[in-house]
Amino acid sequence: MSLEELMQIAIEAREKAYVPYSHFAVGAAILCTDGSFYVGANVENASYPLCMCAERNAVYSAMMDGKTIDDFEALCVAADSTGPVSPCGACRQVLSELFPKNKPIMLGNLKGETKLTNVEELLPFAFDETDL
Length: 132
Ligand code: THU
Fold this sequence. Notes:
By secondary structure, the protein is of the alpha+beta class. 27% of the residues lie in helices and 22% in strands. The protein binds tetrahydrodeoxyuridine.
């Protein structure tokens, strides 16, 4: 599957978002080496800090199906943002531990603008287990 096709799946995943507070739907899709893919969308809560981002829901969904970092090939994230959507700091930290450092991460928006990046670029000098 191409990154463009994975991006389309991330865009469609936005339909699963539960965003009564921000009205900002985000979708994410992770491609695995066996060709399977997992989606995530953001799920909000009246207790705002409990909101969960699309990227983390996608990673956790894949892991709950038995996938690990070694299975992940690519990640796409999409929102109706001005430019390609920028993952939040919490998601960058989680991805830095659970997603391969150099595998493609494509950020996008509904205008078709994209930015290709990776974990290393999104969170240089990340806090990790070696800091503990
Ligand atoms: N959001 C994501 O799902 N991913 C990001 O990386 C950026 C922010 C969500 C969280 C919240 O539900 C909404 O976007 C507005 O911040």
